[in-house]
Write a structure and sequence with these properties.
By secondary structure, the chain is mostly helical. The protein is built from two helices and no strands.
Length: 72
């Protein structure tokens, strides 16, 4: 049996500007920290790697806190 996936347009008009900007900034921040941590692990520089990964985890916590208290 063949499945067909129908993709349509998604209306993002209902998303608030503050929510979108905050989410975009934090997604870029979190992914930057985690990816720098992974690169440092491959370079066998363990202390900076752990620091970057911990900063990514702290950024996730800060993102959740900001979303819970100010935006949502």
């Amino acid at each position: 049996m063949e499945r067909v996936l129908n993709l349509g347009l998604v209306d993002i008009g209902g998303i608030e500007k503050d929510f979108f900007i905050t989410s975009a900034i934090f997604i870029m921040l979190i992914l930057t920290f985690v990816s720098l941590g992974i690169v440092r692990l491959f370079q066998q520089r363990y202390k900076p790697a752990v620091i970057f990964i911990v900063l990514g985890v702290i950024s996730i916590g800060l993102f959740v806190w900001i979303m819970n208290s100010w935006i949502i």
